[in-house]
Sequence to fold (390 residues):
Amino acid sequence: MSTPAAGPAAGLEAVSRALLAMSRQVQVRDVLQTITASARELLQAEYAALGVPDDHGGFAQFVVDGVSDAQWKAIGPLPRQHGILAALLEEAEPVRLGDVRKDPRFGGWPAAHPRLRDFVGAPIADGEEVLGALFLANKQCEPDDPPGPDGCRFSAEDEALLRTLADHAAIALTNARLYERSRELTIAGERARIAHELHDAVSQKLFSLRLTAQAAAALVDRDPTRAKGELQQVARLAADAADELRAAVVELRPAALDDDGLVATLATQVQVLDRAHRARVTFTSAQVRALPAAQEEALLRVAQEALHNALRHADAGLVEVALTREGRGARLRVRDDGRGFDQADIGVRSAGRHLGLVSMRDRAAGVGGGLTVQSAPGQGTVIEMEVPGG
Fold:
């Protein structure tokens, strides 16, 4: 076996790295890619792939490693569940072949498909449920490795190692699915909370607006001065209701972090706020790398809270949002030119209730980051959050 060529310790270290890499990911797609790349590297294969079946004879997700984007595009549609792939999924047993093309289950491949020789595959299963199939092809032996009787091929030790990887892959994939499900439930709960708050706040303002308008109508003939005051109150209530609706629209917008990333999501939300409010709202970013999902979500939520405070409570005319790279992590900075506040006069807990500082600090701490606040009466507020990255 060529994998532990530098000795058992080196092989064990490589396995440990692969398992740790799998356990660090929380998004299903990231887990699939990490499993596939780790298996290919560990077993020294030219090609690796992982397929997650759907309920219609195809694959819901199919990840490859060792194939370029141009090659993958030329290959065409995803494979169906047939031949050896189907055997892995249906029989839930490992398969190791000296030449996949000589197996009676082999059904050919598209013209642009890489030429495969030796093959090893293992199902990824959680109890009775087969979550996917992990398979590798074309063992790449070191120049000084003595070839076996049939040349450089996957060995029984390779097959055993792949089974171990598949067992851990099942745990990592199950955990990722649970994480995404819990996140969906959290988002659903957050939306329900916002909807409830929207109903309470806006309903009260609209009810007050209707009563005030009725009072103004009754006074317009016999007391025009009082009627004018009531109409001014109508205008204020209408403006407050509009602010509540704007805030709800921004909070209810899907974050789209998985699809667009943090930079694009923040840029879009800033554009919406810039159009919806009288204040000027700007966004800049510089060399920001992709971060763990939990950190990106925390940065987004803190930015939303800081923007909400600046636009709703600080009477700001300008709000600047900046996201920059900081080592392996990132730094978020939200600065406004609003009324500010005296930090010496406001305790940490009351400041948190007034400006959401406790919530922002908790979000930062929850992802291993930190949050600082600078403010003074008449000098605006600067909120900075830093996360370490992954």
